[in-house]
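Batch job 17 of 40 flagged for manual review because the log was empty.
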Amino acid sequence: MRKPQTVKALEELGRVQLSKSFFMREFLYSEISQIEGIPNIPSDPDLAIAAGKNLCERVLEPIQDALGRISIRSAYRSCAVNAKGAENKNQYNCASNEANYAEHIWDVKDSDGYMGATVCIIVIAFLKKMRYNNSSV
């Protein structure tokens, strides 16, 4: 799959089912992208999909099966979105692009040639047991 250049192509990417419960669309939302006006679209969708499927099938589905519904807080970042997040003394709490390859940047392999994907989640069941603080979630 090529990098989406149209709404229809981006919709198609968003509809890719990564596992029984998760679709790519859930992982593309970014506050940095929204506020800064930078598209959060993978340059290599096939690599991002492969990394996302691995993450969902091996990590997120087992967590959700054991603990109940989870919510995605932060996941995929394009290189441009991550770079914006890392500038100005880490203004948005992002590491450098090089440190985030195969982590939040799913569509670029790390310096050792490994693919990977990072996600920050909220375990909904834990919200009832912990003091909820909007600024930290």
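Reviewer: the log was empty due to a logging misconfiguration, but the result itself is present. DSSP finds seven helices and two strands in the chain. Unflagging and moving on to job 18.
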